[in-house]
């Protein structure tokens, strides 16, 4: 695999650093995903292991 262009990460972070979630989705999508999960407690704790700040 070739090494990425040295400016790749710089450009990547310039594009995504100002986004509130730093990735796709929105609060409605998060709520919908939780709604379809069954047998969750009333106040579930969520571990977000994805990229970005999450929600």
Describe this structure as you would to a colleague.
With 55 residues, the protein is mainly alpha-helical. The protein has one domain. The protein is 35% helix and 0% strand. The protein has 2 helices and no strands.
How many DSSP E strands?
0
Largest sheet: number of strands, sense, barrel closure:
none
| Whole-number count of domains | 1
H-E string: HH
Integer average pLDDT: 78
- The gross shape turns out to be elongated
Low-pLDDT runs: none
The share of residues in helices is 25-40%
Please state the structural category. Answer: mainly alpha
Q: What is the terminal-to-terminal distance?
A: 33 Å
Percent strand equals under 5%
Radius of gyration: 16 Å
Query: How many separate helices?
Result: 2
Give a nutshell description of this structure:
This protein is mainly alpha-helical and 55 residues long. It is built from 2 helices and no strands.
Task: Provide tags for this entry.
mainly alpha; 2 helices; 55 residues
Which helices and strands, and how do they pair?
Blueprint: H1 8-16, H2 27-36
């Amino acid at each position: 695999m070739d090494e990425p262009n040295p400016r790749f990460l710089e450009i990547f972070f310039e594009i995504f650093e100002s986004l509130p979630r730093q990735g796709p989705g929105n609060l409605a999508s998060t709520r919908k995903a939780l709604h379809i999960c069954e047998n969750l407690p009333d106040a579930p704790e969520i571990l977000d292991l994805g990229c970005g700040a999450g929600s």
